[in-house]
Structures are given as C-alpha cells and as structure tokens.
Design goal:
Largest sheet: 24 strands, antiparallel, barrel
Helix content: under 10%
Strand content: over 45%
Mean pLDDT: 92
Shape: globular
Structural class: mainly beta
Number of helices: 5
Length: 889
C-alpha cells in the first residue's frame, strides 16, 4: 500500500536533498508548522471552457491562486524540498479539476516510467480528498508524469490503502523547460460527500521526486504524529453541488477454450473443451453515502494462480485474495481477532476470509473400475452483492451477500452418466458496522456473519449445516492519538449432523481427542459447538523515537470460524510485547533506522506452556537509496498439541531462527533485493535454510523484467508420517526428512501506453523430499530429546516397493506397514495477459494460462532432470477473451 511508501519510503533512502529549486519559494512559518491546518479556497468554473490537455493555458485557471510552499516529508521532515510544487483547484456542477506545476531544474532527469494502472511509477503528484471530512477516510488520485493513473481508497486514518478501488477519472500531463504539469478531472460521482450547501473537505497534496526518493507535502506532517487523514489541510469554497446518484453497469462476455492431454477411454479428457459465458458487474449509488456493488456469474479467469507449495503441516495455507470483487472495499469487512505489532501466526485469524466463497469442492466421490469422474474446480458464484459506505456522522457500514451453486461431479460408466453432489448450495452473509466517536479518536464496531448450506445430499453431511460468528472491536486513543487501548471479542457457533461435529472436534485446530487433554472431551453425539475469542492491546504509536505495544489474545477450544473466516489454532492464549526505537529523519549515512524487540508466550486452555519466544531485528534505509535489515529469534520451552496429529502433547526442541535482506537503488535500470533465512533446532534435530533474490531490469520506461530465484533445504529428524496401531495401542510414526525446494518466478511487464499493457508471469517449482530412519514416538514428553522416540533397527523394519513393513519385536511377524511418503513435486504456472482499456472503464482481456503438474514418489532432487521432467509433461492450456463495457446511467 502506498501509505507504507509514505511512512517508510518503500525501504530505500536517497541522496541528501539540495536546498533551493527552480522557482522555489521558502516555506513560510505557517506552512512549516504541523499544528496549523492550511486551507485552499476554490472557485466555480461558471461555464468557462477547460480543455484537459495538461498545458494549464486555459483562461479559467487564472481565476484561482496557486498554492505552493510544500515541505519535505522524506527524507528529512520539515526541510525545503529539492524542487517546489504548486497546484490550483476549480470545480463545476459535475467534477473537481486540479492543475499541478511540478518544478524541476533538470527536466531531462524526470522519470517517465510507464506501467499498468496503480503501480505508481516514476515521478508523480497526488491529491488525497477527505470528502466525508470524517478525518478517517479519503480518496487518493495519483498522476504520474508518464500519464499512468493510480487510485486508492484510504481508511482507518491511513492504516489501510486499497489500490483495487478503480474510479473513472481523467488525466493529462506535459513536460516543459520548467519541469512538468498535469491536469486532473475527478467526477463528483466518484466521491462520497454529505448533502450540504457548502462543503468543507480535507485535502493533502503530495509529490514524489523519484530519482531522490523524496516526498514533499502541502500540509506538513510530523513523523512523531500517528495518523494520516486526520492531519490533512482543508478545501473551502465548494457550494451548491449535490451528491450524484451513481449507476454503473459492466456487462461482460467471456470466450474460453482449453487444451489438455487426452486420456484414452476417459470421455471427460478428450483433449479439448470450450464455452462462452455472459455476466454482469454493477455499482449503484444507493445514497450519497452508500454504494451497492453486485456481480452475476462473475469471471476471475485473468487472476494469477496461487504460488505452488508442499505443505507437510496439519494446517491449511492462507492465500491472499486476488479476485477484484472481494478485494475492492474489503477493508470494511476485515476483523482480525488478534492484531499485534509483533506479528505471529495467530494474527492471521480473521472472522471473514473471502476465499471461503467459491472454494473448491470438499467431497470426492469414489469410482469403480471402468468409471470416469469429472470434478468441478471450484464452487460457482451465482451472484454476490456488497453494500458499503460511510455516513457524515462517522458510521461505516459493510454488508456482503453471496450465493454459491450446488456443484456436481459427473460420473461416466460405459456411456451412462450420473451426477453426484460434491458441494452444496450455500449462502454467505456478513455485516460490519463501525462508529467513530470523539472526532475519530475512538471507534466501536460489530461484525456478524452466517453461513447456511442445503445438505439434502446425504454424502455432504460431514459439512456444517449452519455457522454463525460475531465480534465486537473497540479502540480508544488519547494525547493526540499517540496512546491507545484496543480490544476485540468474538463468539461462534456451528450446527450440523453428529459426524460433522465429530470432525470439527477432532480437527487440527483443537484435537479434543488428545489422550492428555483433561479439559475437553470428544462427544460423538454433539450436533453443535460454541466458543469465544478476543484480544486486548495497549500501546503508544506516536512519539519521536520510542513506540511500544503489549497485550494478549485467546481462542477457546470450541471456537470455530473456518466456514467463513480463517482460524489456525483454537485452544490458545497468546501474550505479546513489541517495542521500537526509531530515527525517522536522515542522519549520518542513514535516512531512517528502526530497531525492534518482540516477545511472545503461548499457553493452551489447560494451562500447558506451548512456547516462549524473543526477537530482535532492525531495518535501515541509507542515503544512497540502499536498504538492509536482519533479525534473530530464540524460542524455548516449546510444546505442540498438534505434532502427533491427535496424539498426546509433544515436547519440542529449542530453536534459533534468523533472517537478513538487502535492497539496492530502485531508481537504477538494474536493481536487486536478496536475502536468506535460517531455523535451527538444538541437538541438530532440525535445520532449515533458504536464500532468495529479486532481480529487476528496466531497459526502457515501457519495459520491466524481473527474475526471482528461490532455494531452500529442510532437514528434520522428526517429520510426521502417519498414525497407525499395534493391537489397541496407537503408534505415532515419524521419519527423518531431507527436502530440497527450488522455484523461479519470471515477470515481464510491457506498457504500450497507460491503457494498454502486456504482462507475463511464469513460475516453475520443484520440491523433493525423502524419508529415512523411521521412528515411533515412545515418550513424547521426555525431558531428554533422544528419549522421546525409538529408531527402528535393521531387524525391525523392511523396505518394500510400497513403503515399509515394521516388526517391532523382531519375531518375524509384520506388526504394521507404512506407505512410501517420498515425493518429488513439480509444478509450472504461467499467465500471459493483454489488458486494453479501450474506453474509460471498459476493458478487453486476452489471456493465455498454462499449467503443468507432475508427481514422482522418488524423493530425488536433481534440478536439471526435474526441470526437464516438468516441461515434458503435457500442458493444460486455457485461452480467454473477455470484453466488458462500462455503462454509466
């Protein structure tokens, strides 16, 4: 998000700013004082013609004054910028018009980098408009000198910048001997404001001088102050405008063709498929404050695939949302159960995780010999709608309703077809309300969500029939928002058949069946489960050098939100503390320096200590626009309630972990980032290493190429294999894992012009792992590490083609067998996307996606052979042509 670039300069620092500028004016004392709110007064065009060409030669611009006296924000707060900036603002009954004059004594050095919309390339000037004037939210419009537009919706006083908001607005720019100029037209239909005779809006104008990575602001702001929107200046003089009822429709058509490997005899894999679909996206201004977004039969075919991975844990991976409908405005529905400055796995838990909508089917029907099965890849979204907005009284509202279709697998047996349900018709509903108090210094919010499934198909009874969750969050700030206390509270309840609730009780998030779990029991007759969760934080986010946060969080054993939200672990208490010493203005060789300390302690609800952790890390930005950082973590007193996958708690070894990274100067044609991580458990029980790099080359303003190699080794003496039994006694089997992983991500971005871009993404991935020294756990809580397991001797284990036969007492009789778990996973995903905005808001996509996937149970890592084997695999190609037409009513 761009706020991160504002506050931290996207890692990097620049050369010392030189005083003076072309036509520079020394800021007056009012402009330099951050406690004085500046104001600009605009005028109505009154019918005067205005041609949007970036030249600023229309007579109407002479009716208002220039406002200048910008002050530096980065690298050194309050100093004069290298070059001054000036702007003017006019309006008519339908739009706001902004003129920029960005002075530059070296016009040849102006960076005119091109990119796709919202990449914010090169030199730019932007205006942030708090048209609600709630001191919490704003609409941001960024004008790059190259003509590329960027736009974001800012919320939470600058904590969230949503770049997936794409309003319709116009931009024109010109270069000249004094620098560059721009004209911007922002229709009032793209803003939200109260129905008043006279408007007072908050505004901030910011300029980026790319070659020095320098930011300057019209309204000065101290780095000691938290917040962003609450520190804006004001725009006066707008009278007589009325909120415009926004009705925008975006009908689209998609032609799709697929080519894949033909499977002899399989009627569903005949080598080709094609279809054609119609859909509709829309946006309706319900009121001056509220907007209704809706989609019917949405298409996400141009969305990039998730990165490949080999997940050997008991828990699912949380992938980012990439579908535009759910991303735009999604911040209002965000409800972290335990936000924490320290970070940590528990901070990912959220009452709403939009990727639950449209997920892949979870039932796979068994088929007999001679039968063939055609499975849908995902649950089709029949329709979805989203109501969002913010009133002039500081009330934010978000409602989302979505219905996903009943999905069937089609099964063929000798030409006779039958359908078998694999995912039910499902309704998702979530609502979010937040109210500002004390002028935005305090907030209180509520979220409520519900999932209902039609489980008429008996085989789907392992799913919850209904799931409910809700939460309350509060924030109170004082002393100019420097200090705060915040809390959350949440509750959940799920309903379903006994088998569904049995699966919930024995899932990795809670493992009620653990034999040493003396505070929760598995109830096989249960048809509902309820729980609670929450957090409390206290901290200081403002100040010159020192900031901190401390707090705690919990999730009760019965808490369950994975029908609509994301929960990794229930049954936990988390305590955390973070402290930071920072120098945010340039000094010596530095532009910025951050030193952080973190501390965590975790318990389960039975009072069992799960771990203690402490961390120190730093990051530094230098005046040569390089950046670096490193950190070191120590974890001790570690135990896991999930390591044995439902078995007893297991003591784990202490760990040392660390990382480092470095960035070079982004303003160069060639720049790079690189780094590495390590994680070592004591007694050589586990060892992880990775190295990575991001290499970028920009030969022209229009073309950028990047290459991101990654390599990791993972050696673990105790990696879970399976649970079996000898008689009535369970056996928890582990092996020593030797794993290597390599991947390479290639990106090519070519911008023909700001509204026509070509992008390519390709990512081969290989991971191989082999198991040896098979073991069984003998005493999971033993103090001595080697006393926790027994490694099978040669006379106790026999290797077979399918795995291992184990004879524990070496009497010649096989007690149980373990399948071969060695793996060699090879994946390749790629996307080629041509995006043409042929009219404002109207788009054409031409997409070619290719996927290759291969698996071999040999565990041998050989990068050359693996790569060859991967590209010997027959590809699955998908070709899309999508056209959408923006219609404004």
């Amino acid at each position: 998000m761009k706020m991160a670039r504002v506050a931290t300069l996207v890692w990097l620092a620049g050369c010392a700013a030189t005083a003076g500028s072309a036509r520079s004016q020394t800021p007056d004392s009012t402009a330099q004082r951050t406690d004085v709110r500046r104001a600009y007064t605009t005028r109505h065009l009154n019918g005067a013609p205005l041609r949007l060409d970036g030249r600023l030669d229309d007579a109407c611009w002479g009716t208002v004054e220039w406002s200048t006296d910008f002050t530096q924000w980065e690298p050194t707060e309050g100093q004069p910028p290298t070059f001054q900036t000036a702007f003017k603002i006019l309006y008519d009954d339908h739009a706001l018009y902004v003129a920029y004059r960005a002075y530059d004594a070296e016009p040849a050095q102006i960076s005119e980098r091109l990119s796709r919309r919202d990449r914010f390339p090169g030199d730019w000037v932007e205006i942030n408009i708090d048209s609600y004037h709630d001191l919490r939210s704003a609409f941001s419009f960024t004008a790059s000198v190259s003509g590329v537009r960027g736009d974001e919706f800012v919320s939470d006083d600058g904590e969230n910048w949503n770049g997936n908001w794409d309003p319709i607005w116009d931009l024109a720019t010109q270069k000249d001997s004094e620098g560059w100029t721009a004209e911007v037209k922002i229709p009032f239909s793209q803003l939200r404001f109260a129905n008043r005779d006279e408007q007072v809006w908050g505004i901030q104008v910011q300029r980026r001088l790319f070659r020095k990575e320098e930011r300057s602001l019209w309204q000065p702001k101290s780095k000691k102050e938290p917040g962003w929107v609450s520190r804006f200046g004001e725009l006066h003089g707008i009278r007589g405008i009325r909120p415009q009822r926004q009705v925008e429709l975006l009908p689209y058509s998609v032609g799709r063709g697929e080519r894949f490997e033909k499977a002899p005899g399989d009627p569903f894999l005949d080598g080709a498929d094609a279809d054609f679909e119609l859909g509709l996206d829309g946006k309706i201004g319900v009121s001056s404050d509220m907007t209704l977004d809706f989609t019917v039969n949405p298409d996400f075919g141009q969305v990039e695939a998730d990165p490949s991975e080999v997940n050997l844990t008991a828990f699912e991976t949380r992938f980012d949302e990439k579908r535009p409908f759910f991303i735009e405005g999604g911040n209002i529905l965000d409800f972290q159960l335990a936000p924490a400055a320290t970070g940590g796995p528990f901070t990912a838990d959220n009452l709403f995780y939009s990727r639950r909508i449209g997920r892949g089917p979870r039932y796979f029907p068994a088929i007999d010999d001679g039968e063939y099965r055609d499975m849908p890849n995902a649950s089709s979204i029949i329709a979805a709608s989203k109501l969002s907005g913010r009133t002039s009284h500081g009330l934010s509202i978000g409602l989302l309703e979505s219905v996903t279709a009943k999905e069937n697998a089609r099964i063929d047996r000798g030409g006779i077809l039958r359908d078998e349900a694999v995912e039910p018709l499902t309704n998702f509903f979530v609502s979010r309300v937040q109210q500002d108090l004390r002028g935005g210094s305090s907030q209180v919010g509520v979220l409520a969500g519900a999932v209902h499934r039609n489980l008429s198909a008996p085989q789907l009874g392992f799913l919850h029939r209904s799931a409910f969750s809700g939460g309350l969050d509060v924030l109170h700030q004082w002393h100019n928002k420097d200090w705060y206390v915040a809390g959350t509270g949440a509750a959940s309840r799920v309903h379903g058949e006994a088998r569904a609730l049995l699966e919930t009780q024995t899932a990795p998030a809670r493992y009620f069946q653990r034999p040493d779990n003396d505070y929760e029991d598995v109830d096989s007759t249960r048809t509902s489960l309820a729980g609670h969760a929450g957090s409390l934080r206290f901290g200081k986010r403002g100040g010159k050098h020192w900031r901190f946060e401390t707090g705690g969080a919990w999730r009760s054993p019965g808490f369950e939100i994975n029908d609509m939200g994301f929960l990794r672990n229930a049954d936990q208490f988390n305590q955390f503390t973070w402290g930071q010493y920072s120098i945010r203005n340039s000094f010596s060789i530095f532009r910025q320096l951050f030193i952080n300390g973190n501390q965590w302690t975790d318990w389960d609800f039975g009072g069992g200590l799960l771990q203690r952790q402490a961390n120190m890390n730093f990051s530094a930005n230098f005046k040569n626009q390089y950046g670096t950082g490193a950190g070191l973590t120590r974890a001790w007193d570690r135990s896991s309630n999930s390591e044995l996958r439902g078995g007893p708690s297991m003591r784990l070894q202490d760990v040392w972990a660390g990382w480092f990274w470095m960035d070079t100067n982004q303003s160069r044609k060639v720049y790079a980032s690189f780094g590495g991580d390590f994680n070592d458990a004591v007694e050589n029980s586990a060892r992880f290493r990775d190295v990575w790099a991001d290499l970028t080359y920009r030969p022209t303003n229009a073309l950028q190429m990047s290459l991101s190699p990654f390599y990791a080794t993972n050696d673990r003496e105790l990696q879970f294999l399976t649970t079996t039994a000898r008689g009535n006694d369970p056996r928890y089997l582990f092996g020593t894992l030797d794993q290597e992983t390599a991947s390479l991500t290639l990106r090519l971005d070519y911008t023909v012009r700001p509204n026509l871009t070509v992008q390519y993404y390709g990512a081969p991935f290989v991971s191989a792992g082999t198991y040896r020294d098979i073991k069984r756990i003998t005493d999971s809580r033993a103090t001595a590490y080697r006393d926790r397991f027994h490694t099978f001797a040669a006379n106790e284990i026999t290797t077979t083609d399918g795995g291992y036969d184990i004879d524990e007492d070496a009497d010649g009789t096989v007690d149980y067998s373990v399948g071969n778990r060695d793996f060699n996973v090879r994946d390749f995903n790629s996307n080629l996307v041509v995006r043409w905005e042929f009219q404002p808001g109207s788009l054409m996509y031409v997409v070619w996606s290719q996927a290759r996937s291969d698996f071999a149970p040999n565990g041998r890592f050989a990068l050359g052979n693996d790569s060859q084997a991967l590209f010997d695999v027959h590809p699955h190609n998908i070709f899309l042509l999508k056209v959408s037409k923006w219609i404004s009513l």
